[in-house]
Specification:
heterodimer; A: 3-stranded mixed sheet; 10 helices; B: 316 residues; alpha/beta; 5-stranded parallel sheet; 11 strands; 19% strand
Chain lengths: 282, 316
Amino acid sequence: MNHILVLPEEFETKLNEAHANNDIHTKWLLIGVDTVKDMINRIISKMNERFPKLNITNYRTESKDNIKEAIGNRGSNSIYTGYFETEEGNVDGLFFYIPPSLNSGNDFLTRQVMPSLLGIYEGISHDMIDLHFNNRPIFIANINETNRSEQRAVKVSFICAELLGFQYVDIFEREFHDVLESLNEEGDDEFQISSLADFNRLFETNGNNELFEVKSDEKVLQLLSAKVTTSKNPSAEMYRYLLKILPAIYLAIEEEYQVNVDDFNNAHLNMFDVIRTYISKI
Amino acid sequence: MQIIYYGAPGTGKSYSVDELVKATGVGDDRIFRTTFHPEYTYNDFVGQLLPKVERTASGSTNISYEFTKGVFTRALEKAYEDTAKEVFLIIEEMSRGECAAIFGDIFQLLDREFQGVDKGFSKYFINNDIIAKDIIAITDDKIKLPPKFNILGTVNTSDQNVFVMDTAFKRRFEWHYISTKPEPIGGAYKNNVDIEVILDNAGAKKPVKWVDIYGTLNKFISDSRYLGLGEDKQLGQFFIEFKTGGTPSEHKNQVKNKLLHYLWSDIHKSSYSTEISLFDSSVTSFSELYDAYEDDKKIFSDKFIECIELWLRGSL
């Protein structure tokens, strides 16, 4: 089935700005991309190559308001969210991009993907039977040329996205699975995170994980809220937090753990309610 | 949900399906409806490769083969577009097709997960790259039914020459019995017109409500004191849908053309009783029955007419 890639109008603006920046343009040229049109074609060809079922034949831009409406996002609109449109004009999947020149590793993925996902989940939480947080497949293209993609924290966020079933393409073909090497104690050729214990180790520093606590004896995953509540910008921190705790919850459910959210009781942020609603469905 | 509604003909099985679907508020674009029949195959249900003839610019003919999606595949694609929304695949007359052959490998998908992140999805996948071809949510060829992919079926318990469903297939559905009891309970019944019953050979008539006639018929058909044929042969309230505002003559024609043949071939001819008959002893063939009814002659046996009286008194 053919698809049209529907992009927010701001997408082209971001690419035009990047193209006008000599440093960024130089990096584009290194991968054989010269113009903005070239970059869009590269994104489409990369997506089609990695995910042949997408069969993207063209793209068009839409206002972020129209996109918000089409994907059923009840939260704030996003300049990083698009979708795949079928020949019948239906939304078949969501598209997100990590923009050029973004230089905050903390905001990779979280700022582009999670606000829209939360906004959509608010509208569908009561309708979903399964415990996935997304109702449509998610595809993410990283067109950020900075070296932030090489940072451990950013690679960990890509691992989180992968565990959530999100499909990811890096236009600059940078690898991120190497971040798992420190967990691969037995030297497996294709090590993957397959348990809550593995995932926990990804976030542990000196035996402590400030996001969640895995009580394996009691089979309880205790979610911790302090990282968000003590932040100067709790909303932004919440998006970062969500990307990291959701895979933990998925793994906990599969391992038949209880998910404890008592620590949220004193957290007065609406977004905690969305997580509570989600947890209540387990 | 995977539900099969079953019951006697005319009980409102399709109506019950429609009511359930309507209550969800789902639009027509998310409802897929098909009817099984003896020639219905897996290819009709899932899809098949069909030749496509195209003329080239030079005037020559090109034949290619394209997968033409069946109703199951189209419904599945729709369900995967947004897994928060309901999709209904409605299969009418399931027992008139060979379910095991029609469902084929899809059968394996009917078991659902009751817990876990994948709650509601099929418990087991099947590899089917043709079905998966256009579903972008499925990254490989492993097909599962998503949670809101609902299958609703109807089965007519009195049908003859139907295919038997195996137990393994049947147990993957909830079976909801649709009773022959008239609707609504405790109110003015729907579809309840007066039908004239000829009581004797002198031509004495009595108007009897349809609900009372079919109620008596059902008792007479199933009760071991009478024909004892079992509930399979009973009739539903909507076995005949009487024309709203129709004349007595039009209603009579509907009875003649829709009910008599069923009563003769499926009830009278199926009865083993030599002592108790639905029809008067003067009626020895269907053509005699048809003509007698047309000419306002007595067609029912005294025993059945006695049963009508008992029914009306509430003592049958």
